[in-house]
Amino acid sequence: MGVPNFPPRLESDLLRPFYDGLAKGELWLTTVADTGEWIWYPPEMVPGRPHATLSWARASDTGTVYSFTRIERSLLPGDHKAEVPFTVVLVEPDDAPGCRVPGLFVSDEAEPACGQAVRLSPVRAGDHMVAGFSPIG
């Protein structure tokens, strides 16, 4: 399994809690503070609710594969040939309906499948962690 190494841009603090959580082996996502509605990817402003406040909350480390794709050739700038192939999954955490979190599929034995149960398994990519998900069972 390859691991793409393209550091996140953290010029603002918009995504920092997500990556800080991964470094601790936890999945942190945004919620609308007054309703508890989960939102991922964190917007600078909640669509249709410009006065809503986002807060970060720890989400379940288990979820279901919604979709997946295998990357055979990197389209990242620079030389990333040694980082392919890898499989990207979109995972809906068990307690965050509607959120689809992208991550790497982490398994040497299993193939990904839609509807498959997975667990958060963060992966080191250079000097940062990326979301990874491994099959349960």
Number of strands: 10
| Structural Rg | 15 Å
Percent of residues in beta strands?
35-45%
Helix/sheet category? mainly beta
In total, how many domains does the architecture comprise? 1
SSE string:
HEEEEEEEEEE
Low-pLDDT ranges:
none
How many helix segments? 1
Would you tell me the overall average pLDDT?
Answer: 88
Percent of residues in helices: under 10%
Model description:
This protein is mostly beta strands. It has one domain (16-135). Helix content is 6%, strand content 37%. The chain contains 1 helix and 10 strands. It has one helix at residues 16-23, and strands at 27-32, 38-39, 54-59, 62-71, 86-93, 101-105, 117-120, 123-125, 128-130, 132-135. Strands 4-5-6-10-7 form a 5-stranded mixed barrel. Strands 2-1-3 form a 3-stranded antiparallel sheet. A hairpin with a 2-residue loop joins strand 8 (123-125) and strand 9. The longest helix is centred in the N-terminal third of the chain and has 8 residues, at 16-23. The chain is globular, with a radius of gyration of 15 Å. The chain starts with 15 loop residues before the first helix and ends with a strand. The mean pLDDT is 88.
